[in-house]
Amino acid sequence: MILILLGPPGAGKGTQAKLLAQQYAIPHISTGDMFRDHKARGTPLGKKIQAIMDGGGLVTDDVTNELVKDRLSQPDVAPGFILDGYPRTVPQAQYLDLLLRSLGRKIDRVISYEVAEETVVDRIGGRRSCPKCGAIYHVTQNPPKRAGICDRDVTALVQRDDDKPEKIRKRLQEYGVKTEPLKRFYRERGLVAEVDGVGSPDGILAVTRKALGQ
Ligand code: AMP
Ligand code: ZN
């Protein structure tokens, strides 16, 4: 199964992608996580994209498409995969169509998580993640058992640089201009299922599975 998760930053795509990946035993492919990993390791790509990411802007389509092409050449994607944060522009979606066609595969479903802008701002502001295992928390809505500490591995949680208030506005603006049009792109292909992104992670997972017919 090939799934694409759409929705603004803070819509819960990352959380759902992890749950769905477990549920269906397929890889979760997050271009944001991949870029953050390059940045943290200080690779040439990481250095190239650092300023763009820190400013809340989008990495160029060429660089992003190349990263995804490489990722989709790995054997673990054979049973399917979940794309989280890609595609993010219409040109990326067009590239993905061509890439999948060349691989003899196609998108099964596009889930669009619907969340109001005020909710998103609050969610991003309160989001904390574990630098070790990638678990995602929220200071009030999904807090860890001990404040600031990952439940799974007792690592101190961190706030992403681009989750700081001054960056959120820029990211939402990028979303509105460049990513929102993707919903129409996929709707025209009859692929979109809209899912209310407000609720508990397990509740939203249940609605997502229903939308997937399973
Ligand atoms: P995310 O974790 O999906 O919110 O992504 C974090 C940041 O990584 C974004 O703000 C962009 O700078 C960059 N990024 C992630 N995915 C993409 C993409 N598909 N196209 C361009 N930039 C991306
Ligand atoms: Zn952890």
Main features:
binds adenosine monophosphate, globular, five-stranded parallel sheet, Rossmann fold, alpha/beta, 214 residues, binds zinc ion
Describe it for me?
The chain has helices at 13-24, 31-41, 44-54, 61-71, 90-102, 117-126, 165-179, 181-187, 201-211; strands at 2-6, 28-30, 81-84, 109-114, 127-129, 136-138, 192-196. With 214 residues, the protein is of the alpha/beta class. It has a single domain (2-119, 164-211), classed as P-loop containing nucleotide triphosphate hydrolases (Rossmann fold). Strands 2-3-1-4-7 form a five-stranded parallel β-sheet, sandwiched between helices. A two-stranded antiparallel ribbon has the order 5-6. α2 (31-41) crosses α3 and α4 (61-71) packs parallel to α5. The termini are close together.
Give the low-pLDDT segments: none
**Span between N and C termini?**
12 Å
Largest sheet: 5 strands, parallel
How many beta-strand elements?
7
